[in-house]
Amino acid sequence: MKALTFASAWNVDLADVPDLHVIGDDDVVVDIAYCGICGTDLGIVSGAYPVAVPGVTLGHEASGIVAEVGAGVTTIAPGDRVVINPTPYCGRCRMCRTGRINHCVGKHGTESGVSYDGAFAGRYRTTSAFVHRVPDHVPLRAAALTEPLSCVVTGVRKIQPASLAMNTYVIGAGPLGLLYAWMLSLKGLTPTVVERSPARLDFARDRLPAGSRAVASLSDADDLDIVVDTTSHFLEELLPRMAPGGTFMSIGLKERVAAIDTMLIGDRSLNIIGSIDSLHGSFEEAFHLIVSGRVPAERLISHTVPLADYRKGFAALGCDIDARSVGAAPEASCKVLLMPGEHGA
Ligand SMILES: [Zn+2]
Ligand SMILES: [Zn+2]
Q1: Are 217 and 194 in contact (CB under 8 A)?
Q2: What is the dihedral of CA 146, 151, 157, 162, to 10 degrees?
Q3: Cys-Cys with 154: which of 9, 86, 200, 279 at CB 3.0–4.6 Å?
Q4: Looking at the predicted structure, is the pLDDT value of residue 263 above 70?
Q5: Ligand 1: distance of its center to the CA of 253 in Å?
Q6: From the CA of 108, how far away is ligand 2's center (Å)?
Q7: For 10-48, how does the pLDDT look when each residue is reduced to its tens digit (9 = 90+)?
Q8: Chain centroid to CA 135: how far?
Q9: Which ligand lies nearest the alpha carbon of 58?
Q10: Three-point CA angle 184, 100, 273, nearest 5°
Q11: What pLDDT score does 108 carry?
Q12: Would you place residue 259 in the very low, low, confident or very high pLDDT band (cuts 50, 70, 90)?
């Protein structure tokens, strides 16, 4: 089968690797239908987020059709349409035992698409607890957004607004920015999305929850109560503008050093918080929100590209693998899905 494998920054290749089959009794092997390109993947490929193990198959936001199950699997059968939870945890390390499974140190080797072979491939192998059956009425395309939405569920749980009238802003209209807008809206807030790329702004405008709007920049008059920065770029600039009791959440994974006045944090009762990954049922919650139609995941997909054309998929997000450069997205792009096989539905 084909698999998008990582060697080092900018050195990724569509390699021929052996087909995967079940090994253990609890194994499930999935024929991948769709796997989304994540900001993490852009960071790995471009070298900005150096976390991947050389030789690994990338990709962690996937859905597909079960091909094989181990002898002990009773909950899932070949032919089932499933979404994959790519974030196992050991349950034994100090992080897991103290309520922080998203920082499990025992999962090294099982972080899909980073240190364990991921789903930019014809097949993916996992265990039965980490696949969920997708109802017939839900497209596998939409189900592929469960993992990024799960990360957003984790983050939104940490935002505890003093009032639902708080002025709320999301910086960046990529997939996470739009998913944050939807989740903050479900929480009762009315977020404004700020996006400087005209193409992305256009794409976002008719994909926002009721009452929300998308603008090209913050104005000096904006009174900032809650800011979710998906870009890593705005802490230094915006912290002095945060209203007392405000919350600045930073979820970007771009290295960026900021100089901030620590006095402001105490004097204005500010919260500066971060968030990553799935935590405590967030994956199941995200899956429910997609299955029930509360979050219109499928509408956030801008491109669906065959795996063989992965360079086009990355390029649509501003990551030009041939030129080894990362820039602004050249077109209206949001969630880009790669399609390894013929199982699209
Ligand atoms: Zn992701
Ligand atoms: Zn652990």
Answers
A1: yes
A2: -110
A3: 279
A4: yes
A5: 11
A6: 9
A7: 999 999 999 999 999 999 999 999 999 998 899 999 998
A8: 22
A9: 1
A10: 45
A11: 58
A12: very high
Distance CA 250, CA 245 (A): 16
Task: Give the number of whichever ligand sits closest to the CA of residue 176.
Answer: 1
Instruction: List, for residues 55-79, the tens digit of each pLDDT value.
Output: 999 999 999 999 999 999 999 999 9
CA 229 to chain centre: 14
Token output for 135: 């109802």
Q: What is residue 208's predicted lDDT score, i.e. its pLDDT?
A: 97
Closest-CA residue to 240 (of 256, 259, 217): 259
List of domains in the chain: 2-150+278-339 (3.90.180.10), 159-274 (3.40.50.720)
| CB-based burial, 293-323: b 16+ in 10 Å, e otherwise | eebebbebbbbbbebeebeebbbbbbbebee
> 3-state class of 121 per DSSP?
strand
Measured from the alpha carbon of residue 104, the closest ligand is 2
For 260, the enclosing helix (H) or strand (E) is: none
Neighbours of 128 (CB within 10 A): 17
Per DSSP bridges, beta strands 325-326 and 224-229 are: unpaired
Q: Are 176 and 277 in contact (CB under 8 A)?
A: no
- Report, as an integer, the average pLDDT of 242-252: 96
Q: How confident is the model at residue 115 (pLDDT cuts 50, 70, 90)?
A: confident
**Separation of CA 223 and ligand 1 centre (Å):** 31
